[in-house]
Design brief:
Elements: H1 9-14, H2 17-34, H3 45-62, E1 72-77, E2 80-83, E3 88-91, H4 94-97, H5 106-115, E4 122-123, H6 130-144, E5 149-155, H7 158-172, E6 178-182, H8 191-196, E7 211-215, H9 224-240, E8 245-250, E9 253-254, E10 260-261, H10 264-277, E11 281-285, H11 297-300, E12 309-312, E13 319-324, E14 340-341, H12 342-357, H13 366-384, E15 392-393, E16 399-400, E17 404-407, E18 410-413, H14 420-433, E19 435-436, E20 438-441, E21 445-449, H15 461-478
Parallel strand pairs: 3-19, 6-7, 6-8, 8-11, 11-12
Antiparallel strand pairs: 1-2, 2-3, 4-14, 5-13, 9-10, 12-13, 15-16, 17-18, 18-21, 20-21
Helix pairs in contact: 2-5, 5-12, 6-12, 9-10, 13-15, 14-15
């Protein structure tokens, strides 16, 4: 759908030669100054003192110290980012998956500069510009390719997208009080989402009023038996609380839970039962969206026919709750002061169009190639250093020897027997050596990588794993 541009003062301003040439000049200068960012490098002495000053100010203002001594300088190049201390690091977590085109991407900078010409810094559900409509249309149209999804409500965080989805499902089921979710799920940091998320630490001191029934996620060691057990659990809950569930929240890939995947055969009987018993199906793709072989992961598993509501976020910059015509809520249920910043709206739409049209998706796409390259390097790394990869134990005490896992741009490595203490130590040493990553999972724990799929190249994993080798050796020596 296109709308002919009107002859407004704004259009004349934005397309004037003076403005377009000024933006072109900024991009040209950016690319020239980025040219020196080609590898990780340590901080300068003066820079280290500057960083410590900033970290002290951060601790004072926030009331606690930072997990990593990270304060960006404001420039980077693809997967590389410069900090205020002058160091350069390979950023393999990108704000937990937000910066899908890494740092200093000329296309993203151009979109941000163009957004600054649009009058408002923050757009909301009362007043907004045309780009926010284009973004909603894009998300809904891409979702509708493999599902019955038709409408999109944008918001400024994944937690708020999930809150919106919960309200939509509750209204559809006349206020049914219970929800079903998978064990080890993560839903966000709002009061209600912290209760649904399966993390005891995330809800310490919070009154518990959300009624949640937890389902076992797919266990590859059990295979078909795992599917049978899950179906049994769901049937038990639905019989115990008939008509009391507002939704079943499906994480098709568990993010915080450890980048755990499941085959289509696991989800179909659960979704079929929900459909038969009138339980809405909510697909939570806040972390998986955009970074796999299809933009919506339900398309990768051919599950779109079952989905009533889907939530997305992170790499889209602006988050969203999308739903079918049948779940379109009544007026007044969904609103909010902020949709997001104009720069996020422009940048998100620009990036998603590039991903859709740039050969990233499909079984032979660039994102699938990144996963293959990661596994190639990771498998070689494990084979070269088996001493760093003793078998981890699952909750049943069974040995886990799958040290490399994940899907698409969600990459996982399980060193040191899945020990949280050792992995956290390794993460800090890796940061010092020049690679930024994070942790995920629960007993065992894993190293989590969310490389910037828009700009990461397979050959970039070479220097990343060279740094991992040094960092792991240091971790063991110092541990």
């Amino acid at each position: 759908m296109s709308t002919s541009p009107s002859s407004t003062i704004a259009e004349t301003f934005r397309h004037s030669p003076e403005v377009t040439s000024a933006i072109d000049a900024v991009i040209t200068r950016l690319e020239a100054d980025q040219a020196g960012l080609v590898e990780a490098r340590p901080a300068t002495k003066a820079g280290a003192e500057t960083l410590q000053d900033w970290l002290a100010r951060s601790k004072e203002s926030r009331g606690k110290g930072a997990l990593y001594p990270y304060v960006g300088s404001g420039i980077g190049r693809g997967p590389l980012v410069e900090l205020v201390d002058g160091s350069v690091k390979w950023d393999m977590i990108n704000g937990i998956g937000v910066n899908m085109f890494g740092h200093g991407d000329p296309g993203m900078v151009r979109a941000a500069l163009e957004s600054a010409l649009g009058d408002v810094v923050m757009e909301g559900n009362l007043q907004y510009n045309s780009k926010s409509i284009e973004l909603s249309e894009f998300l809904a149209q891409e979702a509708a390719k493999g599902s019955r999804i038709r409408h999109c409500f944008t918001t400024n965080s994944g937690a708020m997208a999930n809150e919106s989805a919960l309200k939509v499902c509750q209204q559809k089921t006349n206020g049914a009080p219970r929800v079903i979710a998978f064990q080890d799920c993560f839903m966000g940091r709002s009061t209600t989402m912290a209760q649904i998320g399966d993390s005891a630490a995330g809800r310490v001191g919070i009154p518990l009023n959300a009624q949640v029934d937890y389902m076992p996620f797919y266990d590859p060691a059990m295979g078909a038996r795992s599917i049978e057990m899950a179906v049994w659990h769901l049937d038990m809950y639905l019989k115990r609380y008939p008509g009391q569930h507002s939704c079943f929240i499906f994480e098709l890939v568990q993010g915080e839970g450890g980048f755990r995947t499941a085959p289509r055969e696991f989800f179909v009987p659960l979704m079929e039962m929900c459909r038969e018993r009138g339980v809405p199906i909510w697909d939570d793709e806040v972390q998986t969206f955009g970074r796999n072989t299809e933009m919506y992961y339900y398309d990768a598993l051919d599950l779109g026919e079952y989905v009533d509501v889907v939530t997305i976020g992170k790499m889209s910059q602006v988050c969203a709750c999308l739903y079918t015509e049948e779940f379109n809520p009544k007026p007044g249920l969904l609103s909010g002061t902020f949709i997001g910043s104009s720069s996020a709206i422009h940048g998100g739409l620009s990036a998603l169009r590039r991903l859709r049209d740039g050969g990233y998706y499909g079984p032979e796409g660039r994102i699938a190639g990144l996963q293959a390259a990661f596994r190639e390097h990771a498998d070689a790394f494990v084979a070269a250093h088996p001493e760093w990869f003793p078998a981890a134990k699952d909750t049943f005490g069974r040995p886990i020897t799958e040290f490399v896992a994940g899907t698409g741009g969600m990459c996982r490595l399980t060193p040191f027997g899945g020990s949280r203490a050792m992995i956290m130590k390794a993460l800090h040493v890796m940061f010092d050596e020049g690679v930024i990553a994070f942790i995920c999972g629960h007993d065992p724990y894993h190293l989590r990588f969310l490389p910037p799929v828009g700009v990461m190249e397979p050959e970039h994993f070479g220097p990343v794993f060279e740094i991992l080798e040094r960092a792991f050796a240091r971790t063991v020596a110092e541990g």
